Amino acid sequence: MTSLRDAAMTSKAWPFEEARRLLKRYEKAPPAKGHVLFETGYGPSGLPHIGTFGEVARTTMIRRAFEVISDIPTRLICFSDDMDGMRKVPDNVPNPSMLREHLQRPLTAVPDPFGTHESFGHHNNAMLRRFLDTFGFEYEFISATDFYKSGQFDTILLRAAERYDDLMAVMLKSLREERQQTYSIFLPLHPETGRVLYVPIKQVNARDGTITFDDETGREWTLPVTGGNVKLQWKPDFGARWAALDVDFEMYGKDHSTNTPIYDRICEILGGRKPEHFTYELFLDENGEKISKSKGNGLTIDEWLTYASTESLSYFMYQKPKSAKRLWWDVIPRAVDEYHQQLRAFPGQNVEQQVANPVWHIHAGNPPESHMVVPFSMLLNLASVAGASDKSGLWGFIRRYAPEASPETHPDLDAAAECAVRYFRDFVAPKRVFRLPTDTERAAIRDLDGRLAQWQDGQDAEALQSMVFAVGKDHGFEPLRDWFKALYEVLLGASEGPRFGGFIALYGIAETRALIERALSGELAALQD
Description:
Distance between the termini: 64 Å
Oligomer: single chain
Number of helices: 24
């Protein structure tokens, strides 16, 4: 029998492929620091977003995969770049006029517009940590402000002063000529205003570990590069952080990929070993355009979780990270149903199949049992025809279809029923378009009604599906999907829908016949008027 580790060493699941690549990093000797370090970065200029979730979730999947194939301990650090200057006032915060007075100050020196924390940076860090804790991620949090001010970064900063020319040579190659004239890897914090200054550096004194510059008023200042008096520009900071922490693995979006050689070279110049990278594709909105925080053209985490579980979001994140994916409302029902399909399949799979199953990676090898005896897509259609305004309106049908089910014994189904009512109300109901059947469709639907009137086989979903299939075939529908499309459009007001036999079994024979009568009489089509 194949062991878990043996299966993991040959699995084509991408977390195991990345884990094996990382393991090669230490095939000659284990890490001197005693562990493998994973890192994710976060810019706290705004609220945590779905990309943050994706990075931490996917990194955690690789971390858990690594722990299967190696006995080397692991750590995950979530690093907040909260010493970055606030470049603009976010659109979604209170007291914007107050914030404008603090532009270019480090986020941890900007007052909290919400009035709940020491600073805006502390507020956003708290939101990030609460967000990560909600999803049960295991991580250690590092604030850039603390990292700089506590001296943990001092060794690397002094080394950056010593190797300033080499670091600048790397950076200047990547900049336009105009930017080259004023650029420095060091950004001083003004001793009086506290603002992060983007000013030319007149002198870097490697022996003393200081920089000299003129501020905006022309006054000359000399500051030590240590102790939080100076921060690094964001690209040098990326590589310097890798060197300071000895990071072994970090993933980021495709928009960072062109900077990877810069990050790597900065790390190496500062005496570090560049980490292993994983570059993922970006998410797209409904129009196929890249999602942007400033545009607000994508889903937020809270929006997804209003209509589906955290596990369904993890499932979406697991799927094809190297491919661009639409992240829009209509992907939620499929993600929910596919996640539960994989849960149901897991117990009957061998170990090779299990480690290739997304739910192994979502649940670190210990997925729960699925109690979704009714698919989410079916719940949506049930909410539609039943006119349910809350989940209790669905449970009457669910109990008849699955007498053993209850909200207590099937909590995932109960939560899904509540989400389905919300999703139907917000997205399905406003877009329903019922139509009258053609003469051919009317005859077939009338035939279906007649066969339901004579039905003697109870609520057998597969038998009902076969009967519906036979009706379409007998009435000459070619291809047969046109028959099911007609049923969805005439009876449900949508061009797609569930397996219709399962829908009848759930909704009920008599109820389906009453729905057919409403459709054929024109009552449903009249709802558009």
